[in-house]
Amino acid sequence: MANLLKRPLKLALVQLATGTDKTANLSRARSRVIEASQNGASLVVLPECFNSPYGCQYFPSYAETLLPSPPSKEQSPTFHELSALAKETKTYLLGGSIPEYEAETRKYYNTSLMFDTQGDLIATHRKIHLFDIDIPGKITFKESEVLSPGNKITLVDIPDLGKIALAICYDVRFPELATIAASKGCFLLLYPGAFNLTTGPLHWSLQARARAMDNQVYVGLCSPARDMDASYNAWGHSMIVDPNATVLCEAAEGEEIVYADLDGSKIEETRKGIPLREQRRFDVYPDLDKGKIKFEE
Predict the structure, then answer these.
(1) 0.90 exceeded by pTM
(2) Does residue 48 have an active-site annotation?
(3) Residues 43/12, Cβ–Cβ less than 8 Å
(4) Residue of 49, 100, 127, 143 with catalytic role
């Protein structure tokens, strides 16, 4: 079995407190990413909508234009801040997600940007599954009132590490994405996400551990910090789970950074002990990896 993770990796999830001031949000993110890098993290993740409040009423006014790439600083100050920050800290940096506006189509997206240690953009993921739910007496939310969905699975192959899958929040509820990513050799699934006080206690930890257990890979879920004065209250509890579905670290509700050391030998050990890949019965049910899969928009 090939070692999917080529070298040990320290992963940091920044559970960031965000407000209505984009400049202040970016400044806060900068200080926390620098802190994570100084503590030895070589891959740093920010939460969903880290540069803005989360909510349909906010997406249009906080949206930035990303295409054609690279955008100007006026079109996307967040793009340039992330790029410079990745280069400065020499980290791989996943900029959680930001609201994106595509001028050509006049559509809005919830979009993740990932930069390498030189500050170059290496991956973009638009949230595929929009958060449209209605739990009577609890919460109603419809991202589709403003946002459009992305149309591809996003895998990034980092030469000195291996393959990572990127997705956003509600995407985690669709195991097909994780199954395909694992079949393509990913060692890590990353989900910036903002579950709430209804869905968080129900499914946050369960989803992280289920995706790890089903696919025997590492999983990271990175939430914003909880703000009870905001219109949307994030669950918090950012966590990293190992290939055996053990929670390696978990944040509380406030702003903090959580870390875990990832090692490819743990994936190998887990898969040798419980050899799911060799035991699958594609003569009984279909192999998702053989179906039509979109890796381009």
Answers:
(1) yes
(2) yes
(3) yes
(4) 127
